[in-house]
Amino acid sequence: NRSLAELDPEIAAVLEAELGRQRNTLEMIASENFAPRAVLEAQGSVLTNKYAEGYPGRRYYGGCEHVDVAENLARDRAKELFGAKYANVQPHSGASANAAVLAALIEPGDKILGLSLAHGGHLTHGMKLNFSGKLYEVAAYEVDPETFTVDMDKLREQAIAEKPDVIIAGWSAYPRQLDFAKFREIADEVGAKLWVDMAHFAGLVAAGLHPSPVPHADIVSSTVHKTLAGPRSGLILTNDLELYKKINSNVFPGQQGGPLMHAIAGKAVAFKIAASEEFRERQERTLAGARALAERLSQADVAEAGVSVLTGGTDVHLALVDLRNSELDGQQAEDLLHEIGITVNRNAVPFDPRPPMVTSGLRIGTPALATRGFGETEFIEVADIIATALINGQAADKEALKARVDALAEAFPLYPGHEEW
Ligand code: PLP
Predict the structure, then answer these.
(1) Which stretches are transmembrane (predicted)?
(2) How far, in Å, is the centroid of ligand 1 from the Cα of 112?
(3) What is the interface pTM, i.e. ipTM, of the complex?
(4) What are phi and psi of 148, to 5 degrees?
């Protein structure tokens, strides 16, 4: 019954150091967020002890009467939040949700058509080393070389030529909204199923600030830990009962064994919060922050340094910075921002001349700072800090920029009142 600090001081030190890092730096990785204390409590709970293979009311283990309540709450809240008829809340992660989605929709050897990884798609949408690229035949669509957006007319032509069994709409790095109704039309025209992976923008959908894919897609999958700010995990939604049955059997026993009941309880909490006015207001600040960032990084002084914003702006929670004409490559820019206390990730831009480990881009997101309480004023300040760093490169006054970062971090304490975790 010893505490973590007593039993394993080395791991306790990791937790302490990581909490310090999260508190003292500005987190701008677009796929990250800060789970609320209530979600962390649910996850760090005795529910981690429970085996519950199966689904509520139909388990392969005894003693599931309490975890059944948690899973039913998570399912009901997810359905309500996204206006879907059916929800599976068991996927351990976004990737395992996506494996179950494809297994439910098609057979190995069938063809998928998704956004290429190099143009903002996700590994699970057909990357060759991923299960999706190994099990299925892959055709990928790309963004237009002029606009850097998906050209729906070209996509339609490609879909007619390729005849995919599934069309995938969704992304990990794309700053605009996709036209789900048009995707549906194209899928219907070529006899394909439509799967939307809303992992990145699910929080915006929940808040009513982004069009919902649920009325258009055969299946919608998501993660719960990005804009939704819940536990690290996945979610699958559908309005089709037959597909729902296939999803269920492809999650368990198809892909997984025992569900993580502590994570499922955390999802229930996250969906409850996501239905609140406070959450909606936070998503508004997230969007306003991304817009402020894109605007600052589109100004003349930034352009003179060869830095620009892909598509000239953003409709979502992130901006993609194009460094193809900058002296800094993606790696150098990521490192420079890290030195002044801002965490981002380098990201290939479409048609990137540099290798994937270096890249010519940055993906910068605002969800975590919005959760921390940032409003437009603070986002304008962060945007200026980033712009100043990228303009000056290695010659930037790092101490002065770090002091501005520290002032913001201090003004918006993370998990106030908690000395340890
Ligand atoms: N789908 C999309 C669009 C994503 O961006 C991600 C995460 O990066 C995933 C799925 C996979 O989620 P996870 O990392 O939980 O497996």
Answers:
(1) none
(2) 17
(3) 0.99
(4) 60, 20
**184 noted as active-site residue:** no
Q: How far is CA 125 from CA 38, 89, 117, 226, 371, in A?
A: 33, 20, 8, 18, 29
DSSP category for residue 251: I
Using CA atoms, how far apart are residues 395 and 43, in angstroms rounded to an integer? 44
Burial class (CB in 10 A: 0-12, 13-18, 19+), 41: middle
Instruction: Write down the catalytic residue from 223, 311, 314, 388.
Output: 223
Phi, psi of 7 (to 5 degrees): -75, -40
What pTM value is reported for the model?
A: 0.97
Helix ranges restricted to H, 250-397: 261-274, 277-296, 300-304, 330-339, 367-372, 376-392
Cα-Cα-Cα-Cα dihedral of 276, 277, 280, 282, to 10°? Answer: -100
